[in-house]
Known about the structure:
The chain has 363 residues and is mostly beta strands. Among the domains are: 108-187, Sandwich (Immunoglobulin-like), CATH 2.60.40; 287-362, Immunoglobulins (Immunoglobulin-like, Sandwich). The chain is built from 1 helix and 33 strands. It has one helix at residues 12-17, and strands spanning 32-33, 39-40, 43-44, 47-48, 53-54, 62-65, 68-71, 108-110, 113-116, 121-127, 137-143, 147-152, 155-159, 166-173, 180-187, 195-198, 207-208, 214-224, 227-232, 236-241, 252-253, 261-266, 271-276, 278-279, 287-290, 293-296, 301-303, 305-308, 314-318, 326-327, 332-334, 340-348, 355-362. The strands form 11 sheets. Strands 8-10-13-12 form a 4-stranded antiparallel β-sheet, with no helix packed on it. The longest helix has 6 residues, at 12-17. It starts with 11 loop residues before the first helix and ends with a strand.
Amino acid sequence: MRFAPLLVVGSLCLTLFGCPQEACGPKNCDGCCDVMGACRYGTGSSACGIAGAQCTPCTAKEQCTQGACVAAPTGGGHATGGGTATGGGTATGGGTATGGGTQTSDPTVLPASATMAENDSLELNAQLSGTPPDPTVNFEVVSGGGSIVSSGPTSATYFSSSANASVVIRATANYLSALSTLVNITIDPNVTPFVVAPSATSSNAYVLSPGDSQTFTAFQPALSSGTATAVGLTGVTFVPWPLVSSYSVNPTFAPASNITRLYVRENASNQWSSTAVQVGSTTQPSVTITPDVSTVAVNGVVQLTANVSTGGTVTWSTNLSGLGGSITQSGTYTAPSTPGIYVVGATVQGSTDRYALATIIVQ
Length: 363
């Protein structure tokens, strides 16, 4: 599993001040550097990274979490940077199912419209009403550029470009092309993407045990005394997927077993972001790291402690393929010689999705 940081959700040099002309790297980019040497936000699944590292594209089964591609919970897809929309799509048509099933309407899509940043990604989900013979929904870019990649039978990820201000995407029922819904996206170079993550970086963040609840927060980048941090957004709406009867301003959820993703809409800008969630069938161990945020000098040392609720042991690891420092299996972390913001992960042994993350600020 590859780990990455929660406290840094974007490239501040890109969004706030403009990147310097010198080569993209840890000194001038809080996000990641693409193949053209440009500083990117580092929060989108098409370009994931942090602390000036090379951008990494996440697969359809991963989500960009804290600057690294992490395996998403089963059935969840992957988290995206900015953008999504208001409510679901429309259900204006009819259509008779062929080969069995009941009559359905046009696909309901989340988002139905969106504002998103340039060179970012956005997770789309669709559902058909009734009991169609084939629930699959296909997505295509009708106009405006960018690209779209299927991430499941009823989901896709749209990757925006920097050249277009208006994009139209069509979601079409696979079994009957007459059933379709248009999604309208506005590309705005002035908006800053945000991410959705648990308020506490514990391992029951995305996979909950039956009866558990989890509090989520929308984070956006901020700069304080030259250090990249993150601030929680206010004025947001929480939308579980599949859609429920009403939206909520309550960030704490005890989701039903069929909920696979949690969307958050920033009401003022109409940007949305989302994260995969899953309810497990059995009680799962949780793990926390103390301290979860540390500041250390270059080549400095900090002792971290992992606590597993069931008394198990953990495997320690660092992000950025070894460039993010090193850690012993007793939790002793040694910082690299390059300043930046890095992440340490503690995974419960015998598990792949029960982990905690700690952010290390090296300066």
